[in-house]
Amino acid sequence: MSRYTVKQADGSYTVADTAEAIEQLGRVEDLCELLAQEQVQVAGQLEKMRYENKTHSVKFKELIVKKLNTSNILTLFKVHGIYDAEA
User: Fold this and answer.
1) Neighbour tally for 25: CB within 10 Å
2) Alpha helices in the chain, H assignment, sequence order
3) Over 90: is that where the pLDDT of 67 sits?
4) Are 54 and 64 in contact (CB under 8 A)?
5) Beta bridge partners of 6
6) pTM
7) Do 85 and 74 touch, CB atoms closer than 8 A?
8) What whole-number distance in Å separates Cα of residue 57 and Cα of residue 35?
């Protein structure tokens, strides 16, 4: 991954190319929004499948795995201060 920031000794960051850093930040924000939307979408699909009593299907299990993976990624982003679900 190409870094657009340099971490300083005091923990702060500096930017060499502001335009490129803004572009990368925008892509990260887009990714966070996409993952959050996927969580909502998958939850809806799972709820529908539960209502239809399809909880033993392969599709249901695949959706559970997708929801857990997405949740883990969002949790990593939250822990590192990249994503805030309430914002």
Assistant:
1) 14
2) 18-51, 58-79
3) yes
4) no
5) 14
6) 0.81
7) yes
8) 24
Structure tokens at 40: 């909502």
d(C-alpha 86, C-alpha 58), whole Å = 33
pLDDT in tens, 22-38: 999 999 999 999 999 99
* Bridge partners, residue 7, by sequence: 13
Q: How far apart are the C-alpha atoms of 74 and 68, rounded to whole Å?
A: 10
**List of residues 6+ apart from 14 with CB closer than 8 A:** 5, 6, 8
CB-based contact 39:67 (threshold 8 Å): yes
pLDDT digit string (tens) for 47-64? 999 999 999 999 999 999
CB atoms within 10 A of CB 78: 13
Q: Name 15's bridge partners.
A: 5
Q: 3-class SS at 27? A: helix
Two structure tokens written together for 36: 């959050």
